[in-house]
């Protein structure tokens, strides 16, 4: 942890706090997600977050390199644990444009509207992001403005793959959210 200079808090989710950090030796800007754990189920949740992020990025990076597409997912850069304080850190690519929720709120506060052109740009990139995921049989499962990040040059990157699923051909996926049962199946099997 002493290798990093901690900057501002970027957000807070159900499983932890995300901070902007700078690696002291390289001056490289990054984000890290701090996740506390105390019980076995917390450790499993932290490990799942790490595994899902690494798997999604690895699969999509391979596919994007073959097709020369922009990679619309946040790159995981590392993972470490501080056993003394029961905290794990998932180190991620830093997206200096913030998240879509903050962008929308800032536009509202300033009394400005998002132009139709900017809306189409954002929605098109979200669609492209989801297409990249789905073409590689990955379901994000937690798409919301807070998980849509913006780079400095306003490119969309999806984050938070802790709930994502790697789909297998022919298998149905059932999940309950808010008391509603959803069935996920690859579109060609409907």
From TrEMBL:
A cellular component annotation (GO) from this entry: cytoplasm
Protein name, entry field: Putative serine threonine-protein kinase nek2
GO MF terms, alphabetically ordered: ATP binding; protein serine/threonine kinase activity
GO biological process, one term: regulation of autophagy
Residue intervals passing through the bilayer: none
Classification via PROSITE patterns: PROTEIN_KINASE_DOM, PROTEIN_KINASE_ST
SMART domains: S_TKc
Lineage: Eukaryota, Metamonada, Preaxostyla, Oxymonadida, Streblomastigidae
Superkingdom: Eukaryota
